[in-house]
Amino acid sequence: MHVFADGISKVTLSNGNLRINLTQRGADNESVDAGTLIVPASQANNFLNGLAGSLKDLDEKLKAQREAQGETQ
Fold first, then answer.
1. What is the per-residue pLDDT across 1-56, written as a single tens digit (0 to 9) for each?
2. Structural domain tally of the chain?
3. Measured between alpha carbons, how far apart are the two ends of the chain, in Å?
4. Is residue 1 part of a domain?
5. Which CATH number is 37's domain given?
6. 28-63 CB burial, b ≥16 within 10 A, e <16
7. Rounded to whole angstroms, how far apart are CA atoms 39 and 53?
8. Residue 2: inside a domain
9. Beta bridge partners of 20
10. Which domain holds residue 45?
11. Which phi and psi angles does 27 have, rounded to 5°?
């Protein structure tokens, strides 16, 4: 299942789960609910650290790609 989200409306902790309400920009730039990401609170730290690490790796790859393209132009 794929969910497109470009924002977060609310983060709560309920019954041992971290609930992240996701949104997307709709018509007239208004926020529309896109779904809820539910992560067990006991895994939230590992989950978020993994996501942050993956985004850092992706950023480094994109920077290297931009630099390589700059050298070939």
1. 899 999 999 999 999 999 999 999 988 999 999 999 999 999 999 999 999 999 99
2. 1
3. 40
4. no
5. 3.10.450
6. eeeeeebeeeeeeeeeeeeeeeeeeeeeeeeeeeee
7. 17
8. no
9. 11, 37
10. 7-72
11. -60, 145
